[in-house]
Each structure stands twice: as structure tokens, then as C-alpha cells.
């Protein structure tokens, strides 16, 4: 018996038997209908033909074995449909003698009307427009939620072009992604970029951030939202000099400041690793004096001009 993991409509992973037909849920008939068609076609296309066209009527031009084989397909199709129904649903359909009759009865009872389908599509559109980051989730988890929503919209007949989807997802990301998404908008052709390609770029950036977090383990933590210099270099390698002319001067200055901050952040991490000391407090005159070594008495804490040691007197 074979098993696999399946994603439910609510985004929950569960283990199912690949030979077990998908169970009908009352409010999800449209999705179940498509999944059942796919399930039947996996095993034998004749099963779906039996449901679509009705039970086989024995014919004189066919042998007895051929007629019995097609009747057997009809019985199997009806049995598979029955296995997909819960007891309370199947109890009201015991009168159905063929797979086609059972299928038609299910469609008549549970298939959504055009008005209901339109309302569901409208609700999905609202979810799309309000889509955003949920606290605590990773970029990949957010991306998977977005792709599931887009897939269900397509299933309902609502289709957005790639550029619209890419821009929508980048706008939904937390503020710490703003600099990186700005670089993507200016350096990439969003009309030709797919969601999968966007996810690859964002995943590379996220891996760089996680790498920086691991480096800082065991020492005082620094700002996690500060991007690493290597991340910016990844994009600068894809930029030409004339590309920079397409940026607003303020945007260029912001990217330059971010880069310089990242370089200082990297120097700080290396300093902590080498000395075990963190950089805390303000750089005051008292702090500087506390680190100075007098060149006359060789003591720490004052300058030579302030030295009161006898050896400090001029000859």
C-alpha cells in the first residue's frame, strides 16, 4: 500500500493512501469533482467514460467476455464513487444504481450555482487584495500561501498577469525586504519574470541573512534586518554602469548608505569574534582616555601631558 503527503484546501499537510479516492466535503464539491476525475483517469480512463456516458449495454457484436469486462468497469466506477462519500451523504443516494446516476445526483445536490461561484471568486479577490505578511512566518511560507491563493483564483477563472503577481507579492513582504525588492524592480524585467524565479531570488537573499545570523551566534546579537554586503554584491554583478543612471539619486544614496552600514556591521562582527568585546556606549573623551597608555609612566587612564608621576618631570 502506497502513501503520500497531500495539501488540504486549508493548507494542512496530511498523509493519504494513493489508492483511496478523495473524500467529498460538502462545501468543496467543485474541487472534489476535479480531483475525482484525475483520480479515475490515473487507474483507467474507461472508469470516467462509464460515469460520463452511462452503464454499458451488452451488444451482439461483442463477445461475452468483452461485454462482461465493460460491465465490470461500470461496477468499479460506482464502487469508487461510493467509497468517496461519507455515510450521511451516501445514505441518501442508495437508490442510484449506476455510476452515472450517482454522479449526476451529486452534481445536482452539491454543485454550486453561478451566483455562489461568483461570490466565492469575489471573496478570493478580496483575500488577494488584502494579502500580507503574517508575523512569525518565513518568506517561503508566505510565498506558499500566495501561490495557493493564486492557484485557487485561476481555478475560479480569475487570472492576473505575471507582472501584477510579482509586484503584488513584493509589496506584501515585510519592510526589511524593501531595499532588495527595489533593486529587483529596477534591474529585472518584471514582465518576463515568473513567481518561481522571484522566489529563487528572494530565497538567495534569505539564505544570506540566515548565514549572517549564524556568524553572530555566541556573541552579542546585531540588527538582523541589516543586509550583508555579499547580498548587494550579488546584484551589483548583474548591473551595468549605465543601469545606475536609471535610479533616482535619493535611491542610489539610500542603497549606498545601506551598503556602508552592512560593511560596518561586518567589521563589528569580525571585531567581536577576534576580541570577544562588543562595541557599546558612546565615543566620549572619558572613554578614549580610559583606553590610553601614558608614554611616560606607561600607565593606563591618562595622557602624558596630564601625568603626575615624578618620572614625568622634564629634565
From TrEMBL:
Keyword ATP-binding tagged: no
Keyword Zinc appears in the UniProt entry: yes
Name of this chain's protein: Putative zinc finger, CCHC-type
Keyword tags: Metal-binding, Zinc, Zinc-finger
MF terms (GO), sorted A to Z: nucleic acid binding; zinc ion binding
InterPro entries listed in its UniProt record: Znf_CCHC, Znf_CCHC_sf
PANTHER family membership: DUF4219 DOMAIN-CONTAINING PROTEIN-RELATED (PTHR34676), ZINC FINGER, CCHC-TYPE-RELATED (PTHR34676:SF15)
Domain called CCHC-type: residue spans: 294-309
Cited Pfam families: Retrotran_gag_2
